[in-house]
TrEMBL record:
It comes from the Bacteria. It holds the Pfam family FecCD. Belongs to the binding-protein-dependent transport system permease family. FecCD subfamily. It comes from Streptomyces atrovirens. Residues 1-23 are annotated as: Disordered. The chain crosses the membrane at residues 28-48, 81-98, 110-131, 137-156, 168-188, 208-233, 254-276, 326-343. Keywords: Cell membrane, Membrane, Transmembrane, Transmembrane helix, Transport. It is a multi-pass membrane protein. It is found in: Cell membrane. This is FecCD family ABC transporter permease.
Amino acid sequence: MSATTVPAPPDGTRPANRPRTRSAARSASLPIGLFLLAAAVALSLAVGTERIPLDQVWTALFAPSGTEHDAIVRDLRLPRTLIGAAVGAALGLGGAVMQTLTRNPLADPGLLGVNAGASAAVVTAIGVLGITSFTGHLWFALAGAALAATGVHALGGGRHATPVRLTLAGTAVNAALFGYVSGLQLWHLSTLDEMRHWSVGTLAKRDVSLLLTVAPLLAAGALLAFALARPLGAVALGEDQARALGTRVRRVRVLSVVSVALLCGGATALCGPIGFVGLMVPHAARAFCGPDPRRLMPFCALYAPVLLLVSDVIGRVLVPPSEIEVGTVSAFLGGLVFIHLVRQRKVGRL
């Protein structure tokens, strides 16, 4: 009898080589991500309305002599870069947690009402209470994000919440809160003028003191997200299988909601609502690192800041001396990458 030959797949790749190829790509992606993050940080410090050579950036950071370039790098661009990196990592992690929790690769951190709650709180502070300081907006945004996330979780069933209930509750709360925001803005025209700078998401005119205020919340949310990586992976397999593996599903859901609220609430409070980063980065990363949250979360925390910082640099140089807010640019770039992924059919599944 002649040996039976297994036909090769249409693309010519042998099936046995695919796991090895994916493993090699995954191993190379982390060093590449570190390099891209370093390059994005360097661009953010050097590129803007005024271009500063990298050697002068290095001098401004580590051997300042009081020149104008030192002031630009240390007082303006360094805080902006640090905030962008922190916000990007928070949004990427929050998106990974949210998509895994709901078993929906199109879920966004804003699904918990974080963005809507923060926006409603800030517009109330501006239009009703007359608060215009960044610090005042920060605390109101944090409180609004936390209350909205708590409300969505309660409406979704509390301890008995399911992915479908959370999605429906988040949609309803988002619609109600954004309706309130629109109504209050039309009622108070001065509120509309103040809100338009905050609602699009920007890294401009943000001080390091604001980041230091929010940093403990972001750190707590990140640590909680990484601690939940293993049980979230079990939950993604289905509730029955997760319970069979000994996972306390209700507890994981509650803690996941807390993690997303801390991460995305803090990010939104710092920069305003920035969409698409928390949706697109986990979605794209899943295509080459797989759905396991233990591998997905480090990728998201590494690549999301790259997207946000590059978007910020592009926004600075497109229409000098003015600039386009980072939320607008990141949505545009994310949309292009997302369309490319869909057309190539490389979108990862949960």
